[in-house]
Structures are given as C-alpha cells and as structure tokens.
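Entry 12.
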Amino acid sequence: MVKETDTQRKRRLEKAKQKRQEKLQQESEAGKFSRFAKRRKRAEEVTEKQRNVERANDKERMAHARLIETVDAHSFRLSNDAQRHAKARANETADEHISRLASDAFLHTQARATETADEHISRLSSDSLRHAQARAIENTEVHIYRLESDRLRHSELRSREPSQERGARLRRQREAYVQRVADESDFHSTISTFCDKCCDICQKKCYPNQVVKYRLTSPKPYLPPELSAKKDLLVCHRCNTHLKCSKSHAPSKAY
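Predicted 3D structure (tokens):
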C-alpha cells in the first residue's frame, strides 16, 4: 500500500470536506431531520465511558487543529462561529433560550468546579483581557446598550433571588464597603503624611509626630522679638527640650 504524502492527505481531506458541505447544502428538511434523529439515537446508545473517550478525542483533535491554524484561519473560524451563533440565537424560541442559558450555566459551573488553581488564574486573566479589549473598541451605542443590558439582567436576577440569598448578598456588600472605606482611610492617612512641619526656632523640616506646641509663658532672652510675641511656638523635640531647661543661649542652628 502506497503511503500518501502530507500534501495528498491535505488535498483528500479538503475534497472530502467540500463534498460534505455540498451534500449538506443540497440536503432536504426530511434528510436533515433523519440525520439528526440518527445522531440522537446513536448518542443515546453510547455508554458513558465511550462518550467520555469521544469527548476527550474531540477535545484533543480540536486543540491540535487550533494550535496549527494560521492567523487568517483563526479569524475566519471566529467570524463563522459568531455568525452561526448569532443566527441560531435569533431563531431560537423562548423555551430554547431558557434551556440554552440553563445548559450553559450548568456547563460553566462544572468546568469551574474541576479547574485547577493555575487554570482559574489563567481564565480570570483571559476574561479580564478579553473584556478590556471589547470595551476599548465599543462605540457609544454599544456601550449604552451593554450598560442597559447589564442593569436589566441584574434586576431580573435580584427579583428572583430568595430573601435568604438577598440578605447574604447585602451583608457581603456592607462588609466589602466597610473594608474598602477602612483601606482607603489607611491609605490616605499613610500617603498624606509629609515632612511639611517647620520648627519655629531651628527651621528644621519635621513630620507631624516630630513637633509639639510649646506655651511661651516667659520670654527667652535669646529669642527674636517676633517669636517672643507669640503665645505658642511649634518646635521640634530638641528645641522643646532646650526651651524647658535653664540655658541662656540659643539652640544650635537657631532662628
């Protein structure tokens, strides 16, 4: 048996794919219904073990195909998927819409329950990047529509949530708000501390905790008139100690 080359295999697969697409385009509604019925029947007859094996094989095959696809092929695939999903969602009934959302939520819950810590971090990073890119290129109309859609979705979710879940959600929000206010207060109290206090005597720049008020009850002979006329002086700790002692000379680096 002659072994086919990579080029021959590629051509054969392309011809088979093209032939299948032409067959699907010419397929009648009865033929489509029969094909889907056979697929459903086969899916019901397959055991859980066989189904898991097939899913694993399909996942591996798709991962390999996406790994070697070019940039143009990647963009073309995403465009086709978006058009197909949009068409399917435009034609779905209310019951199908609810069923799809429930199925998607169940699949996402299962996937997130079994993901590892690295997969969790990678997913959050990928979601954050994707959302940031989408919001960066959205126009004003899309932005307004997204905000309105988010508000409507949140209103629907909150109108259906039980009182116990609502109480738990409000409690978490209050705790998060209190923690956020405390963190912000700590941040500002830390970042707003500057070396902006000046000793009236030695003119040294000090932090708020490095200066004190000194009540000038009796004038000091070494103080200039403008300082002797004050009732209170803002002084550093060294000058405060000097003023309290009985020294008759001015501190070093004096005013």
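Annotation: The two ends are 105 Å apart (CA to CA). The longest helix spans residues 163-191.
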